[in-house]
Amino acid sequence: MFRLVAGAAAFIAALMGGIGWYFSDQIVRPEPRTPLESGLVVTWVDDTTITLAGSALARVGRVWFLEWAGGFGAAGDVADSDRRHVTRRFRPLDGRPTAGSAVDLGAYLSDGDPRRAAGLAFEEVSIPGGFPAWFIPGARDTWVVFVHGMSASRGEALRALPAVAGQGFPTLVITYRNDPGVPGSKDGLYHLGATEWLDLEAAVRYAQGRGARRVVLFGFSMGGAIVADFLSRSELSHSVVGVVLDAPVLDWSATVRLAAQQRRVPGFITAIAQRAVSIRTGFRWDGPEGKVPPGVFRTPVLLFHGVADRKVPIGTSEALADALGGRVTFVRTAGAGHVQSWNFDPEGYERTLTEWLSRVAPGRR
Fold this sequence. Notes:
Elements: H1 2-28, E1 37-45, E2 49-53, E3 64-68, E4 71-81, E5 85-94, E6 102-106, H2 114-118, E7 123-127, E8 131-136, E9 142-147, H3 161-165, E10 171-174, H4 197-209, E11 214-220, H5 222-233, E12 240-246, H6 252-263, H7 267-281, E13 301-306, H8 314-324, E14 328-333, H9 341-344, H10 346-360
Parallel strand pairs: 9-10, 9-11, 11-12, 12-13, 13-14
Antiparallel strand pairs: 1-2, 1-6, 2-5, 3-4, 3-6, 4-5, 7-8, 8-10
């Protein structure tokens, strides 16, 4: 009997460990970026409008991006809709789809570059360590450095980039370890900012080498966690004069719990998965990389977060705003999901961003 019980206990322990290991992969294993909706059928298109069948997201928001084999464009305000179709204003950016073809809908472009997507002159540069970055020149001696989110791409920055470049800020849009086509970590896993901040540090040092006297850091989602780790650990953090955060991950445990709730994963499995992450990567859930101390942010902060975000809880951003008080400009965007504040209010987003930047980094060189 004892052997039977012991064997059953060992089996259950192994099963739980395996399940926890599987779910830890969902947390730290890089995955290809997927669109919000894929394979939407185009029923009509010209140079000013596009009609899509079967889309839910295309009925809300102000601007979405469409990608298809060989091109991409921007879908603007809704012009007409019924139960089966929605027609939106359309701006081709690279080619044009044909009626009957399939397109993917996303909050940002995974393809493209500053010139093709926004008409901005840029240079493809290499940050030491082998990390490509877009450099957009400008006249100021304060640079803006963009850091994308988990399993995202540099395309995430293309939405805010015209507003930043339009004010004359030299800009870097960086990559970091485990991005496609760049050097990976030794274990091939994300460390949730705990090591990725070193790649941001290399980018800031590169900017300083090209004349940057000050920097503004701009982080999306996990990019916000990377920014926070940089601020708490880097000897270059003194050069930061402002931080922009869009749906930032400020509490990894809260973020993982929200994801588990969305997938109906039991709490004890989530706890096992978190423990597996620590074993595999050394990540400390109770350390400053796991839950960002508000005191890390010693400069003005501009904070965007969608009220309908189901990936990163808005409560963590609200807690940061409460803790820092007047140092934070906090924009809650009604209806917006994860990193979709720009998509739901592009004019308001850009106006707030440019006004905030003019206060944080006024003047030109």
